[in-house]
Amino acid sequence: MTSRPTIRPELREWILSTTHAGHSVETVLKLMQETGYDPRQSRSIVASVLNMPITALDVHVHAPKQPQGRRTHHPEAPQVAVDGRIIDVPLSVDSPALRILGNLLSPEECDALIEEAKPRLQRAKTVDTSGKQQIDARRTSEGMFFTIGESPLIRQVEQRIATLLSIPIDHGEGLQVLHYLPGQQYEPHYDWFDPQQPGFAAITAKGGQRIASLVMYLNTPAAGGGTAFPEVGLTVTALRGSAVYFSYDTGDTASLHAGLPVQKGEKWIATKWLRERPFQKSL
C-alpha cells in the first residue's frame, strides 16, 4: 500500500493558491518539475493536496490542449454591492471555490421567474456522452431553459451574475429553471464535462469547458431540497432569494454535488452554468 507523501505547508499553500488562481494542474506539475521535483513525486503530491485520485489527475493532464479560457472571479468581501443590491457572502470554501450568496434575487424576481417558467416545464434531462440531451433516472425534476436575453427579467438577472462574477454574459448558458416535488432529487454528479467521453469535443466546441455553476433558490421548501457537497461535508440550505456559487477545473472531484430530495412542499431553482469561452447554443 502506497503511503501519502509528506508535504511541506508552504508547498501545499502554493499548490492551492496557484490552482485557485485559474492555473491548470498540468501547469502546476510542470512548474514543480522545473524546480527539481520528480514527475512521479509531483503527481502524488498534487493529487494529495487537491484531494483527488491519480486517475482524476490524469483527466487534467491528458485533456485536449486548448488555449486557457476565461475564469470567473470569486466574491471575497462579506458583502458585495451589485445592481443596487447588497449581496451577502456568509460562507466561503476554498476547495472547490464556493460561496453562499444571500439576497442575490428579490422575492419579486423569484416569483416572476417561476411564473415565466411554468408553461414550458418538461422532464429535466442531462447531457449524454455524445452531447445530446437525454432522460436520466438520476434527475427526476421538471425544467426548462430560457434563451440568453429572452426577457427584461432574464437580461437583468444575467447582467447581475456577469457583474458579480466578472465574466461576460455570453459566457453563460441559458438560464435553466427546475421544479422538484416531494421525493424528487438530482443524485451526486459533476457539472464539468469529462474529456474521456466521446462527446466531449462536440459539447465543448460551442463554448469550451464549464468552469462554474450558480444555483439560485426561487423558494424555500417546507423540508429538504438542499444542495449537498459530499466531498466537502457541506449542505447548503435552499432559501428563497439566495444562491450557491462554485467554480471548478476539469477533473475536480471536490465539486461533486447533489440536489437532495424534497421532503415536504416543493423546490424551485434557477441554474446558470458558465463556460470558459463565449457559448453558442446549437440551432
Would you give an account of this structure?
- With 283 residues, the protein is an alpha+beta fold.
- It folds into two domains: 9-61; 79-275, q2cbj1_9rhob like domain (Jelly Rolls, Sandwich).
- Helix content is 25%, strand content 27%.
- The chain has helices at residues 9-20, 25-34, 39-49, 54-61, 107-117, 152-165, 200-204; strands at 79-82, 85-93, 98-102, 122-123, 125-127, 133-135, 142-145, 176-180, 186-189, 210-217, 223-224, 227-229, 234-236, 243-247, 257-259, 262-264, 267-275.
- Strands 1-2-3-14-10-17-8-7-4 form a nine-stranded antiparallel beta sheet. Strands 9-15-12-13 form a four-stranded antiparallel beta sheet, with no helix packed on it.
- Strand 2 (85-93) and strand 3 form a beta hairpin.
- Helix 2 (25-34) crosses helix 3 (39-49).
- The radius of gyration is 19 Å and the shape is globular.
- The N and C termini lie far apart (52 Å).
- The mean pLDDT is 86.
CATH architecture of the largest domain: Sandwich
List low-pLDDT spans: none
How does the helix and strand content classify structurally? alpha+beta
Strand segment tally: 17
Overall form: globular
Strand order of the largest sheet: 1-2-3-14-10-17-8-7-4
Instruction: Please bin the fraction of helical residues.
Output: 25-40%
In whole angstroms, the N-to-C terminal distance is: 52 Å
**Helix and strand sequence:** HHHHEEEHEEEEHEEHEEEEEEEE
What percent of residues are in strands?
25-35%
The Cα radius of gyration reads: 19 Å
Domain module count: 2
User: What is the number of helices?
Assistant: 7
For the biggest sheet, the summary is:
9 strands, antiparallel
**CATH superfamily annotation of the largest domain:** q2cbj1_9rhob like domain
Mean pLDDT level: 86
| CATH class (first level) name of the largest domain | Mainly Beta
CATH topology of the largest domain: Jelly Rolls
